Amino acid sequence: MYNIEKTSFGYKLTFGGAIDEKEITNWYEESKKQLESAPASFGVLIDMRELQPLLPEAQKIMVDGQGLYKNKGMQRSAVILNNAVTTMQFKRLAKDSGIFDTEKYINAAENPGWEKAAVDWLANGVDPY
Asked: Number of folded domains in the chain?
């Protein structure tokens, strides 16, 4: 399951459950359409609290999607997680796509104010750590 929502700071992406290659391809194609009207710069909040680790086929498309957002103007991103395996996986994918240096990872289980911390980072550059 995925969802793309426009927000005041840019976009909120929500991923949950097991996402296969077909579904991640649908996300990528929908992202391309959504980003046609993107502002020159924006932030992205990615809620992955319910996402299971991606299979290798889906990981490649996720890296391409991360690059798409970066190339369309993404300045900062905040990833909300609560699973160590998924956190490690997405840190690696962010390095592969070149977004790691502008991405913050917030553990929702340890930070009940995760949403405010994420928005402060995205909208104002306030480091959530």
From this structure: 1
